[in-house]
Amino acid sequence: MTWIFEPGHTEAAFRARHMMVSWVRGLFKDIHGRMELDWDRCLDATFEGAIDATGIWTGEPARDAHLRSADFLDVENHPRITFAGRFTERTGATTFKGEVELTIRGVTRRVPLEVHYLGEWKTPFWVGDENRGELRRIGFEATAKINRHDFGVSWQDEIPGGGVVVSNEIELTLDVEAILLEDLERTGAIEYYASSAAHDGAA
Q1: What is the domain class of 2-202 according to CATH?
Q2: Which residues make Cβ contacts (< 8 Å) with residue 197, sequence separation at least 6?
Q3: What is the CA radius of gyration of the chain?
Q4: 13, 65, 122, 197 - which has most CB atoms within 10 Å?
């Protein structure tokens, strides 16, 4: 079964230590992708997607501009962050371990994931006053930790006492809401999600 990421409700968040004492949090939206998942064979599940790196947001424009620069993400040369992964182990009724091939700045590394299934729900698809049918939606949250230097994101500055401005370890969270492709096509809602379904030939 193919599930298409709903980009309006899918996001990737990160946080890093700043000046040794606080957290800086950031967010990426505009994430397009797909998931192959059949609950009868859940450990065969695979997923892939692409993130618009140019849209990084931390709430501080000057910091966002620095993060887009060659010191960090170098979005001029690497405008997308991509990922492709799979489930590797079921650890509970709604929890899994997984792994993902994550590409940042053109560098790909395999990263372990902790995955939590958040549930499934059926929602109507309305066009004006007409209900065109139900859309099945599922949700997942995946978390990981990476060393940013593994991806060439290596700008750093020191502060007195041996501290650093930005931590090497970055915590990542991917929140995915996905809609069953079969339902998108049956109801005609695929027209509203065409940009996500068309990602890398997902349609």
Answers
A1: mainly beta
A2: 4, 34, 181, 184, 190, 203
A3: 18
A4: 197
What pLDDT score does 20 carry?
38
pLDDT in tens, 124-134: 988 888 888 99
Tokens of 2: 């193919």
CB 190, CB 199: distance < 8 Å: no
d(CA 24, CA 1): 37
In the predicted structure, residue 60 carries a pLDDT above the cut 50: yes
DSSP string, the chain: -EEEE-GGG-EEEEEEEETTTEEEEEEE--EEEEEE--GGGGGG-EEEEEEEGGG-B-S-HHHHHHHHSTTTT-TTT--EEEEEEEEEEE-SSSEEEEEEEEEETTEEEEEEEEEEEEEEEEEEEEETTEEEEEEEEEEEEEEEEEEGGGGT-----EETTTEESB-SEEEEEEEEEEEEHHHHHHHSGGGGGHHHHTGGG--
Tell me what the mean pLDDT of segment 19-40 comes to.
Answer: 82
The count of C-alpha atoms lying within 13 angstroms of the C-alpha of 96, restricted to the half-sphere facing its C-beta, is 22
* Start-to-end C-alpha separation, the chain: 13
Query: So what's the pLDDT on residue 128?
Result: 85
Q: Which of 150, 39, 48, 156 is nearest to 105 (CA)?
A: 150
Does pTM top 0.70 for this prediction? yes
